[in-house]
Design goal:
The chain is an all-alpha fold. It contains 13 helices and no strands.
Length: 309
């Protein structure tokens, strides 16, 4: 039982714990908008407002949170790992910067790319299960339909039984292709914007909550805009299951058929919902992360600066 206090006392432990708080804040704040985005991407169901009205009327408000248990259970650990890996890689890619100074923008961008690639291993199964649950009633209109799943464990068991371990990692390649560059933009935009909004804060750590919210929100928007077409393809590939007809035979086939049948606009369908969600979620993530980090480094005093060692 002595491990946890010792782990928490280290810089690495504090980055890990603060990242976990950030992940929880992000999931809770943005999950309903994520459900609307997934439904927009999967089928031509109309605007987000139209989908929202239909879901609430036919399935109840709780449907907007369907499948949240899987990402909420895992995202604390996942986001903790993301921020911990980023803290290490952002310095490893530019060792010329001293430990008392913030990492360079070059280190930030490269560290983000590496972090995104590594996190795909953890993220792919979680997003697969989440997408299957979010789209369940589009496949099984009746709530008592045979084959309807009761939760993430039910989905995971079904995938492993019918598709094996390979099935649980359906969409891994496209997830990695999406997350590596998007995380580079993500962390670079956050670090750049917080410095523009509050000059000197990268070293002093004394920016306001407003700066955290805006810089975090803009970072989330930048990361989504740069990779959105890949996310549309990923959603469509992961929505497929043995219980439904196989429409696509891979990334290129999915991209080609989607554009041919629905036009290039399909690659940006749901972007408005994704951007709105990204601003809210990532503002919450970075704010929770920064505040938790200051509390852990400064014994609860969130006004004083800190250095990431």
């Amino acid at each position: 039982m002595d491990f946890w206090p010792e782990f928490l006392a280290s810089s690495w432990g504090k980055e890990f714990v603060a990242g976990g708080f950030g992940g929880m804040a992000g999931i809770i704040s943005g999950y309903p908008l994520d459900t609307l985005r997934i439904r927009q991407q999967s089928t031509d169901s109309g605007s987000a407002l139209r989908i929202l009205r239909r879901v609430v009327a036919t399935e109840g408000p709780g449907a907007l949170y369907r499948g949240m248990a899987a990402p909420l259970a895992s995202v604390t650990f996942q986001n903790a790992m993301v921020f911990q890996i980023y803290a290490i890689l952002s310095r490893a890619f530019d060792s010329s910067v001293s430990a008392t100074n913030p990492p360079s923008y070059k280190g930030v961008a490269l560290g983000g790319v590496g972090t995104g690639a590594l996190q795909s291993v953890m993220l792919t199964p979680v997003e697969l299960i989440k997408i299957r649950l979010q789209l369940q009633n589009t496949s099984f209109p009746g709530s008592q339909s045979v084959g309807a799943h009761t939760g993430p464990i039910s989905v995971a068991k079904s995938i492993l039984k019918t598709e094996g371990l390979r099935g649980i990692y359906r969409g891994f390649t496209i997830t990695a292709l999406r997350d590596a560059p998007s995380h580079g933009f993500y962390f670079w935009t956050y670090e750049y914007m917080r410095e523009q909004l509050h000059p000197g804060c990268r070293k002093s750590g004394q920016e306001t909550l407003r700066t955290m919210l805006i810089a975090g929100g803009l970072a989330g928007v930048a990361s989504w805009v740069c990779c959105y077409p890949l996310d549309v393809v990923k959603t469509r590939l992961q929505a497929q299951s043995p219980a439904s007809p196989q429409k696509y035979n891979g990334i290129i086939d999915c991209l080609h058929k989607s554009v041919k049948q629905e036009g290039y606009s399909v690659l940006w369908r749901g972007l408005g919902t994704a951007v709105a969600r990204a601003f809210v979620v990532n503002g919450a993530i970075f704010s929770a992360y920064e505040i938790a980090l200051r509390c852990l480094f400064n014994n609860g005093n969130i006004q004083t600066g800190h250095n990431l060692e």
